[in-house]
Specification:
Layout (H helix, E strand, L loop, with lengths): L1 E8 L8 E3 L1 E5 L2 E2 L5 E4 L17 E6 L2 E6 L2 E9 L9 E6 L2 E7 L2 H11 L4 E4 L27 E5 H10 L13 E4 L11 E4 L2 E10 L18 H7 L1 E2 L2 E10 L5 E4 L3 E3 L1
Parallel strand pairs: 12-13
Antiparallel strand pairs: 1-2, 1-13, 1-19, 3-4, 3-18, 5-11, 6-7, 7-8, 9-10, 10-11, 12-17, 14-15, 14-19, 15-17, 16-17
Amino acid sequence: MKRLSEIWIYPIKSLGGISLPTAKVQPRGLQYDRRWMLVDGAGRFVSQRELPNMTLLGTSIEPPHLCVFVKENPIEKINVPLEVPINKLEKIRVEVWGDKCWANVLSKETNNWFSEKLKQNLRLVFMPDTTRRWADGRYAPKGQHVSFADGFPFLVIGQSSLDDLNRRLEQPLPMNRFRPNFVFTGGEPFEEDAWADFTIGDVPFKGVKPCGRCVITTTDQTTGVRAAEPLKTLATFRKVGNKILFGQNVVWVGEGDAWVRVGDALHC
């Protein structure tokens, strides 16, 4: 029996994630997942690819706020409202992997905090419900939209897949290197590659495209230090064309209110 073992959200793209026992499923991703993003002066997204020290900032949901803190010194923190007052904030066009969409800029105080911590002039932006950033129609069903995630609303990885990889590595790595939304136990290594329609509990999803991995997977999510693994080893047995694959991109194909919970059964 395959079961959901972990649920993760990453409220601010490329910052620390939050492990949850249960989460609300929404068309563009889990509630709060990647609805905020840091951008440079041109409105282009920044991530751990350019700024690995983004790993040093953690996040937590503390209603009515999203709290962002320095992991090594949590009293260094800033609170961002979960209910963003979009009518009072500047609206700008931002860019994520060539997609351009509208977002709202948070306060000057907030932007200065992030700029100071990450040593670069940055602004924090929020994606309002009115913004539609469409998922790649070559793979996702028509009409699917996505938050500030790289390309698709959800990412699922089997624990067996990580276990298989770790058996090939000199030093095992944690799942957080791959920043999934859903982790499941049971099943065969890499079986998620072939998933199409499946359910978590009674919530229907569709696998649309194996996930091509980048340098972020080589970044220690505690220290920000980079090394060759796991891409070096993954390239020896998980390379297809010019992509190194690990995990499956997923969309939700249900409607109405839906929740997933750790312990839910997965049916493929």
